Amino acid sequence: MADHQPTGMTRASSAESSALSNIDVAATVAGAEEDASDRVSNASTPPTSLADTGEMSTSSAKKLAGLEPVEEDGGRRPKRARAGPSSYNLKKLSDAQLPVGGTAASSRNVSGLTGRTLVNSEESGEQRQETPLEAKTEKALDGEWAIPADVTPKELPARLQRKTSVKDRVKKAAGKVGTVLGKRTREVMEAGKRKLGRKRRDEHDEDENVEAEAEGEEEKEEDVPRWKKKLDMGPKGLLDELDLDAEPASLAPPPAKRAKLSGKAALQEMSQAPVASVPLAKAATASKHMKKWQKEGLFAGQDADFDPMQPGGQRKLQKKRPGSSMSDETTPAAATPTKRSFVTLPMFSYLDKTRDFVVPFDVFAPTFKKGDEKPKDWHQVNRNRLVGEAKEMWEKSERLPASMCVCQASEQGDLGCDDHCLNRVMQYECNDDNCNLSALQCGNRLFTDLAVRMKKGGAFDIGVEVLKTRDRGFGVRSCRTWAPGQIIMEYTGEIVSEGECQRRIREDYKDKQCYYLMELERGLIIDGTKGSMARFINHSCEPNCEVRMVKVNGTPRMGVFAGDGGVATGQELTYDYNFDNFGEKQQMCYCGAPTCRGYLSKRLNAAEQKKMARVENEKKRKAAEEAQRHAEDEDRKKKVKTDRGSSWRGWVAVDDPETKERLKREKREREEAAKSSDRARRLAARRTSLPASEREPLIKKKSDAKRKTVAADEEMVGGVGQNEVEAPIEEEDVGEDLAVHQSTVRRGVKGHRASSSVSKFTEDLPRPASAHSTITSTITRKTEITITEKAEPESTIPRLVTALDGARNDDAEEEIAVAVKKQPIKDAMKS
Ligand SMILES: C[S@@+](CC[C@H](N)C(=O)[O-])C[C@H]1O[C@@H](n2cnc3c(N)ncnc32)[C@H](O)[C@@H]1O
Q1: Are residues 26 and 118 in the same domain?
Q2: According to the UniProt entry, which residue ranges have a biased composition of type Acidic residues (predicted)?
């Protein structure tokens, strides 16, 4: 674009080059737009809203801008111009009168009239009288704004260039969201108009503003009329979002709380792995209703080019000191801003460039939530303590001479002392005595890094938290990312001897479900019962961490390091326990890994694994065979069932010990019943062969009240008929065989009580289907039978039965019953 634009062109470009200008144009009703173009062509009335600002403002502004020739009507605005929207805007004004040594866009001053504008006017050689207002304005403007004409836009101070970029960005953004923005802006405009009220008042306000501007004062927020604030902000703060009114850094008033970062700085900050000592950043604005923002969290610990899925990337990271606080902040590698590789939210890049954008605090907060269960009986101790004889053992132990590594500093800026470092191989941490590299160059000072992080003590420095798992007790979750090989924490506790450890298992921890014992060195064990958070790390057969011993200044220490794949935010930390089982019973493993060994057991070497695989295969083969057999059995059973018809109830699973036992019992009972029945039959047969006189009464009634019942029962018994009465009770049978006897007798009685040497017995028996069923149904009831003497001759009962039988016939049933009632049974028997 040329340095100077024709009037119409300037306005057009101004409208294009600013989102706000676009908005204004869009907000203007179609008719107004037509009018505007008319006005441009006539050059009598400027096509911007400036034209609507009334006499004073129009004249002064136009003159200032050098855009307006002589007004034909003496400064009075044409009527139709008045009908346009009252969207006077300082930015538009400033855009309208640009450019010096660059495009309108590149030199727009968002604060309104610029010193540059005035200088340009002069430089352009316009011969006109400087008005008092112009003079006043020029005087008030900062000298900094007077830019020599030969300065190209590229040479402009950064803050001025920034304006250009804001404009460009806004233009771009406005173009993208054109329709939405246009619609919203129209709404904003309408809202503004409604608020404005009467036009005259508007004009008055606008004039005031122009004057205030001309005073050369920067537009302070409090000075801006309320209507303008509303107009600019919109009801939803739309324009504020776009930050169009941003002042150049040097001119803007100091921020309320925190200086805004430039887009580049913000990008740089975000792209670097924050080490994180500030869990909660201060609110971005002074308003207490504003959301609080967390400075880090989601990407904490994540280097910009960290991608665990890329093996190449991992190696690269491993070469640097991975994610350590020192590497983040001080190493040359970390100081270089790197490109972010993670996927960002769609609007992120835009916000990132224009705002101090931070991750909302509640995206991932490493804190206990209300109601989360906390571990009990945990005495946290973050450093090792030698206990008992371990102390002496430690003092007596042989100290190896300090090794010296020969690593060289990397020319590419990567960290030295990598996997080939002699100290590293010997599990020694480098220090100034055993390493030639400086702390910043050496990659084998992980415990030193850890100490720095722990000293900071922020939530993201610690970076892990204890949480309850579903099925494995408590576990440890990561609240940030950890690069491969990075130290996460130290496993600390009481260092005890092996003997003491055994004693504790036997005595102190005999009722405990979990042990927190970890072998440190031969003969020395760390008991993490009183120890660090690392004691809560669970086992996995496919872990994401490893636990290693490192000698730090000669002292063995146990560290938890991120595995080869790194650890992502929110993952549970796990390592392979390689469990030495203290008890007989093996613990089931619930790690859920595809290659889970099934138990918390020792890791096997190759030969053991082979053997194990063989055993497993054998097991599988057997299981398959068994399944096959089972399927065949099922088929067979099905076939048999169908062959036998529908009444067949199926086989009994004799494999079941309970069923087996039941079947045996039932069989035994059946046999015994049959035996008793045979015997009863035999005896009955013998009894019936005896004469009645030889039969002695066996049963006597206890009381009169019972007599009837007994008699009735006896009668019923008799009624059953000789053939069915098969239950003489033998002397030895009394009591022990009573159940069998009763069941075979089928008396149709409800119950009997046998006293004397006989046990009590009550049973429901089915009524006999005999010819006397009508009678028996009337007399069936609970009966007490007393067997008078144990040593009753075996023939007594059959005799009694016989007696009744003898008296029995269909016609005499009632009489017999009555007769029995009236006399003692003994007599009845005799008679
Ligand atoms: C050192 S503790 C780990 C912390 C433990 N979860 C707690 O709540 O204190 C080891 C015990 O955790 C349980 N555990 C750890 N990893 C497990 C896994 N993968 N499957 C089942 N249990 C596990 C076992 O009971 C084991 O004895």
Answers
A1: yes
A2: 204-222, 727-736
